[in-house]
Design a protein that fits this description.
This protein is an alpha/beta fold. It folds into two domains: about 120 residues, 3-Layer(aba) Sandwich (Rossmann fold); about 150 residues, Response regulator (Rossmann fold, 3-Layer(aba) Sandwich). It has nine helices and 13 strands.
């Protein structure tokens, strides 16, 4: 594993010198800040892959820093990025919106991009995934496959729109479905997540939606031990077991990063809060388990296409 707190320079070509940049310039160098690690195989890894795709597609030098979870650390990282000539910085989480709002005016030549936050300055942008529909279709599949008519959402926070979406989708599929919801209160509290999923299983839940990228892999492994099912989260997690993972609700962060870099390069990146959904082709359902009826899969896929065209969910 690479040094978690060190800066790693990733380059396909060795580009010339660092230093200050012109505010009128287009994409020069790109930086990524992550609150934990790029090795989590879920959220952090997807951001890292997005950075690598930017590097490859635009032939630019890129940098990243892990463990950036405080205002002080972010300020120091941004200062280092500026000295290296970075003019586009991705903060890979909602917490970075406030960090960037407070420091962005001091760096007018840099554009700051965060996730699921509130971008307030002219050189800041927040990318927001519309998680409601994603959760809705995941809830439909969970409800359809539940033999006990008991499904569960193991979410990090109450504000996650995919939680209400999952609930509504499960009820839309089968009004008699019992939906259990537990909030871990953290993206990364694996111990509490495992305790919570054990509680769900003890109550008869047979399909779990672990909607927290920092703990969903150990939760999936725990559910697998009991021969039950999950709906994957953020990444296509079918590789964790096709007889366990019924499908996944995917947020294609890596693809969105490339789109944002392209917009910035063309001087088309908007400030403020931008939202993305199925119709933008950055949210999707993943590979289906062979246990899911093929006719049902066709039904879901058709409903997703209708949603893309009309914005209407099947409820």
């Amino acid at each position: 594993m690479l040094n978690r707190y060190g800066m790693i320079v990733l380059c396909l070509l060795l580009l010339g010198g660092c230093g200050s940049i012109d505010s009128a310039s287009t994409l020069q160098k790109v930086g990524l800040l992550v609150p934990e690690t790029v090795d989590d195989q879920v959220w952090g890894t997807k951001g890292y892959k997005g950075l690598l795709k930017i590097q490859s597609q635009f032939d630019v030098e890129v940098f990243y820093k892990e463990g950036m979870n405080s205002q002080q650390m972010v300020e120091q990282a941004v200062k280092e990025f500026e000295q290296k000539g970075v003019n586009l910085i991705f903060g890979h989480g909602s917490e970075y919106a406030e960090y960037f709002n407070s420091i962005s005016e001091s760096y007018p030549a840099i554009h700051f991009v965060s996730f699921n936050g509130d971008a307030k300055k002219k050189n800041t942008t927040s990318l927001n995934f519309k998680g409601h529909a994603m959760g809705f279709f995941g809830g439909m599949v969970a409800s359809y496959m539940s033999e006990a008519n008991k499904v569960g959402v193991l979410a990090a926070y109450e504000w996650q729109p995919e939680v209400e979406g999952f609930y509504q989708g499960a009820i839309a599929e089968n009004k008699d479905t019992d939906v259990s919801i537990i909030y871990v209160g953290n993206w990364d509290d694996e111990n509490r997540a495992i305790q919570s999923v054990n509680s769900m299983i003890a109550e008869g839940v047979d399909v779990v939606y672990p909607a927290g990228d920092g703990y969903n892999i150990p939760v999936i492994e725990k559910v697998k031990e009991h021969g039950l099912f999950v709906i994957g989260y953020v990444s296509d997690q079918s590789d964790l077991g096709e007889s366990t993972v019924l499908t996944s609700t995917i947020q294609q962060v890596d693809k969105l990063y490339v789109n944002v870099a392209e917009q910035f390069k063309n001087k088309e990146l908007q400030s403020g809060n931008l939202s993305f959904d199925f119709k933008d082709n950055v949210i999707s359902l993943g590979e289906f388990s062979p246990l899911v009826n093929k006719d049902y899969i066709k039904k879901i896929e058709k409903q997703i296409e209708v949603y893309k065209e009309t914005g209407k969910l099947p409820n």
